[in-house]
Amino acid sequence: MSVSEKIMSDANNNQPVDTNKETTHFGYKTVEAKEKASMVADVFHSVAKQYDIMNDLMSFGIHRLWKRFTIDASGVRPGNKILDLAGGTGDLTARFSQLVGREGKVILADINSSMLNVGRDKLRDRGLVQNIEYVQANAEALPFEENTFDVVTIAFGLRNVTDKDKALRSIFRVLKPGGRLLVLEFSKPDNELVSKAYDFYSFNILPKMGELVAKDGESYQYLAESIRMHPDQETLKSMMENAGFEQTTYHNLTSGIVALHKGYKF
Amino acid sequence: MSEFMHTQLLAGAVEIILNQALHKGGAKQASLIKLNEKSLAVVLGEFSRPIVLTVNSNKLLVTSPASENLAADCTIHTSIKTLVQLKTEQQLTQLIKDEQLDIDGDIKVAQHFAACFETLSIDWPSELEAHLGDIGTYKLMQLVNSIKAKLKFAKQQITSDATEWLIHEKKLAVSKQEISDFIGDVTQLEQQVSSISDTIDALAIKLQNTSKTIGT
Predict the structure, then answer these.
(1) Most exposed residue of A34, A93, A233, B41, measured as fewest CB within 10 angstroms of its CB?
(2) Which of A64, A80, A91, A99 should one mutate to test binding to chain B, selecting the residue with the greatest count of B CBs within 10 A?
């Protein structure tokens, strides 16, 4: 079985773990591991300006509810230090900034400069400036000291990371003891009917929507493929536990189309 | 639609409506400034998750964290039924005494929030319609009306039960006539006892005298 066939086979079994570290998956394609970051970067440079509109269109606005739920589950308190990893256009950062208050701090981090610029402009336009910092960072090698953050979130970002295990270990390192990681990510629907409808929507409607609105059907084809290649709920839970997280749980949202994983560092 | 969707949709809509209503009046801005970075949590017995209101930069944030993550400057534990009853300060004291309402933390925060809200006049159905749409609002109002009907029914039940208890109590209670008859019976019994006592005394004296006669 070729590496490509193995990934496809694993994807069908919802076990998309590529054991060969020299190569990885970029959607359904097999690519050199070192190339993935720049390929993902190209996708997000391309969609950055239309990202928010496309999110609303693609999810029918439900992504706002998923994000609200994530913040409610984070247990954020005034004075907390938050890292919004792969924070993109800053939806989570905006709300966290208001909840942590003047004594707290939110770091919006993203590997992609275009996404970070869009996020920074959006938050500044909304007058959110006093407790937010912007950092261009790779989740696999976070440029922060150990035990820095009370909460780390990564919403719709982990599936684009080349080495997810390394990223989880890096996040674990920067969390304070008692701190928690929240991973909001597309996952495996828990209902067969929903799964079929979701597949049809993802591979037939989503790329056309991307072509029409963002003038970039390929990026949205990648989005659909990358979701299918992402570890399912149980696999991601195990990965978090392997990275050192404890009391790891997940909550399926919208029939498992999205799942929120939560784990603590003690 | 799952519970999380209902909760988040409702919290989101309420947040927008409250902010719009709060910012219509300038007087309320002063109250909001006093509450900057303060939070009030309301834990209602009927719901699984608390509702937390936080003020930041004159904006009200409505969140619904898990109970174990609850952290607020003031927390009110109560129920919708109790809130419906709550109209005067005297009642508040009574409700606290009756353990139907509990306030933890800084009560001034609750008072400031109350001051902010007391002047608000919101037409909830039309405001919700703008955010949730016709069907969403219809469903929500159906839910609210169903809760109201349940509360009304519960109130009726409690009232009718109380009336029934009073009737039973009345049946058990002793009437004036019964007391008067009882007093008459006791007096009669006292007289009978006194008469028997006199007879016994007379017999005892008679017995004593008879013993003396035999002895001599």
Answers:
(1) A34
(2) A99
pLDDT per 10-residue tile (average), chain B, 216 residues: 75 83 65 83 83 87 83 85 66 73 84 75 69 72 69 62 65 78 91 90 88 76
Q: Is residue B129 part of a domain?
A: no
CB–CB of A70/A184 below 8 Å?
Answer: yes
Distance from CA of A75 to the nearest CA of B (A): 5
B57 touches chain A (CB under 8 A): yes
Number of separate domains in chain B: 3
Residue with tokens 């570290």: A21
Instruction: Taking the CA atoms of A266, B4, B5 and B11 in sequence, report the sign of the dihedral they define.
Output: negative
List, for residues A144-200, the tens digit of each pLDDT value.
Answer: 999 999 999 999 999 889 899 999 999 999 999 999 999 999 999 988 888 888 888
- Which ranges of chain B does DSSP label H, i.e. alpha helix? 3-22, 27-34, 80-85, 89-97, 107-118, 124-172, 176-215
The answer regarding whether domain A40-191+219-264 maps to CATH 3.40.50.150 reads: yes
Q: Tokens for B141?
A: 């109002």
| B56 and A CB contact within 8 Å | yes
